[in-house]
# Entry
Amino acid sequence: MRDNRAAYWRRWTAGAAGGDRLPLVGPPRRPSPPDRHFTVHLGFTAADLVAAREVAVGYAEALSVLRPELALGASALSPADAWHRAERLFCGALGPDAERCVDVAGHAGFHHAPGPGGLGWGDGD
# Structure
């Protein structure tokens, strides 16, 4: 390669001005990989497990309002030094329209789908 100046490479990557030359850099041959799932861990202090559960539910609900793509039903709480003891924060029961219950885990009464006026189902009060 005799000519390594930027203008030479820019001409080849963008395609020739005459249109008869193919660009040096083409589109990728393989499709991009699908999105992967990730988990964020938020640390905080609380007096006991009940208080920690209330704070964690508040954080999860607030984040789901700000970022609706978050999987609220996948939220869990665990001690900081024992991630293997994680417990679910939300019910997650499957409803008749394949919606998941977003009430807190262990709630009494009907199950409720997300959003205002969401579908309710199950054995309730």
Summary: The radius of gyration is 26 Å. The beta strands are 76-77, 87-88, 111-112, 120-121. Residues 4 and 10 are 10 Å apart (CA to CA).
